[in-house]
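Closing statement on the adenosine-5'-triphosphate sub-project.
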Amino acid sequence: MRLADFILDQLEAILQEWENFARTLEPPGASMSTKELRNHAAVMLKGIAEDLRNPQSRDQEIAKSHGLEPASPQSQAGEHHGVARLESNFSIEQLVSEYRALRSSVLRLWAESTKSAEQTDIVDITRFNEAIDQLLAASVFSFAKAARKAQEAEKQRRNQFLAMLGHELRNPLSPISAAATILRMANSGDHTIINASNIIARQVTHMATLVDDLLDVSRVTRGIIEVRCEPLDLRSVIDDAVEQVLPQMQARAQAFSVAELREPVPVNGDRKRLVQVVSNLLTNAAKYTPQGGAIALRVDLDDERVALVVEDNGIGMAPDLIPHVFELFAQAERTPDRASGGLGLGLALVKSLVEHHGGKVSCHSDGPGRGSRFTVWLPRRQAAAAQGA
Ligand SMILES: Nc1ncnc2c1ncn2[C@@H]1O[C@H](COP(=O)(O)OP(=O)(O)OP(=O)(O)O)[C@@H](O)[C@H]1O
Ligand SMILES: [Mg+2]
């Protein structure tokens, strides 16, 4: 019997094998109906059989073997099948397995029922294989496309949530801080209250920084961060950042050094944002370097670029963290007490802010316990523009 006739004649048996195999792939907890497990299979098989019955020209044959066949009911069924399997939580490997099982069960059942091999059988097998390949490709493409779309939607939901969370957390901070000030002023003789209100004020400032980072990150991820560039001398940016972070380093008895810069370091940038970049790198250096460690900042200049390097001799980074360290929420394993704190936002912000300035960032560590080095490259403002500064 020709393959096309066999498929139509034995459709129910083939579908049953397809269903049995698909059932072995069912994701845990799902109990899928026969209809769900067989979905689109009948359309695909009937489509293939109909197609096999029509002779095909050489051009059609070549187009098919190159995967350039025009859309057909079965290829559309293949696309729908890919999306349906994604929605039922199948993996892409399982989707591919289904087609392999279909291919082998059809050919096996057919071989068992056909005693003699004819020349036409070879043509049928080749065409059948191509048809399965085409359906597999249609399913895999649509599976991947739908997966990407779902991921994008998820990312967008997460970003919106972060933005909302940031705003909701920011709102109560000003009144709390104002109340702490009033409390302190109204009780200027009572040390217990003054101490308590100082603690509130300090912690509110800390929370405000966290929340501001969160808001910045959500702006960055939604592509709405604003960078207003003006001619700057990077030295003054460094001074501002150092002023912010120095108390943290002093509290940890860390030795901090800045290589002296005699000449201005001309860049175009948003002062506030660049201070944020440098202070994030310095804060990390202070946070991830033990008491008494050393932190150094230097600037290297060439004709086109300015490199700002922050180096410490602290806890360093494992090789598997380094490629991800600039991603949102990426953090090294923490001790259960999370002594170093943080949300994993700082470096993601640094990267995106630096990129908004046309620059880039990189990091290096010889491994855990062996210190870290972060480098920010910014385009150097050219001499003609520098005169206007
Ligand atoms: N100088 C450094 N030395 C060692 N590890 C570092 C250093 N800087 C960053 N890391 C590692 O990279 C991770 C990500 O840093 P990032 O600044 O993005 O987040 P964070 O410091 O954990 O939190 P946040 O900055 O939001 O307060 C850190 O958690 C830490 O594991
Ligand atoms: Mg940080």
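Residues 172-221 form one domain. With this model delivered, the sub-project is considered complete and its resources will be redirected to Aim 3.
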